[in-house]
Amino acid sequence: VTTSDHAAWVDCAGAYVLGAMAPDEREHFEVHLAACTICREEVDELRPAAEALPMASPQMVPTQALKDRIMAEVEREAELLAQAGASADRPEPARARRSRGWWPPSGWRLAPVAAALLIAGVLAGTALDGTARDGTATRSISADVKAPGASAQLQVAGEKATLVARNLPAPPAGRVYEVWIMPKGSATPRPTSVLFVPRGDGSAEAAIPGSVSDTQKVLVTDEPSAGSDTPTGKVILSATTT
Amino acid sequence: MGQDLRSLADEDVMQLVRRGDARAFEVIYDRHSPAAFSLAYRMMGTRAGAEDVTQDAFLSMWRSGARYDRARGSVRTWVLGIVHNRAIDALRRATVHDRRRAGDEGIEERFEARERTDVEAARHEEAGTVRRALDSLPADQCQVIELAYFGGFTHTEIADMLDAPVGTVKGRMRLGLRKMRSQLGEGQVAV
Fold this sequence. Notes:
- The complex is a heterodimer.
- Chain A contains six helices and nine strands; from the N terminus they run H-H-H-H-H-H-E-E-E-E-E-E-E-E-E.
- By secondary structure, chain A is of the alpha+beta class.
- In chain A, the strands form two sheets. In chain A, strands 2-9-8-5-6 form a five-stranded antiparallel beta sheet, with no helix packed on it.
- Helices cover 76% and strands 0% of the residues of chain B.
- At the A-B interface, helix 2, helix 4, helix 5, helix 6 and strand 6 of A face helix 3, helix 4, helix 5, helix 6 and helix 7 of B.
């Protein structure tokens, strides 16, 4: 590697490990990297910092519906692969372990909006089935919603409940909806950390913390954006679990 | 799913994935999808965008499991690298207008993110260490790293945005990452 070769790429290691190069520039840099010890050492030094960056994101849990979509495709392809007999020592193919009568044919791709609607459909479908895929009993509880045209249900699977709302109006400007839980034997709603704003189409889903059997009522009010410890806004919906 | 599969190390599970074992792939998905989805969400700004990227990335891993090379790092790093590349592709396909709009839509869903943050408490400390290392950088270094890594912008786009020379932007990236690296310490944050 000549000095002039390296001079053209000085300071590029950071941009490279951050993925901040255009594709053709990246390809050229990788050719240089194969021959330049200085740049390779610098890339090796900086890479762990770049690889730690995902941890700086707020940690979230993807929906079960997303996993179902991905695994449906994976299992379909695994079965095709097994039928093709591509290798003799392949493990026993994964069986279609789940009933997916309501699932669209494999090989589909969804636009983001359609995907969001489908997630809602999955939640509703779970309740209608009467049993979740892991065999847990499910039920659906209608909520009393104080908004014209809006509806909401608590989808209960075992001890876990999810609030699923449709056509919910946006909360007043600068406010969000907060979920409250009324424990059994108490007349005082307890605040939760669940704050949400419906999507543009009025749909919203929120996981209800705690155990359903310990809860007599779930309420939602509008509150300041940081949430409140005691309700200050109007009750937009409520659902009695017993 | 058998407990024996769950008890295997990632690298051993990947041997099975390579041979087309869907149950093994499910183990990898369960272990790494929260981090993958979190990164995708941070980059795309909306749940729908993050789900598209996560789905594309995991299906790509399933179809190219043979490309995982344990000599080049952990399965987690491999997974997050693919998610990062897919998100960059998606962001670069969008116009700047779309990218800004996606960010605005994301504001609504970040309320959900706050709730989700409570769910994965085990990773909070690790996340906090990285966040503190990033926040401790001079603002101009932190800015270019965030725009590049999470925003998917190239160094030349960032230079245009900030009206700064390209060399300056690249220098800030390198200096910032070097400082982060020394703050995180070797082995302190496992990725």
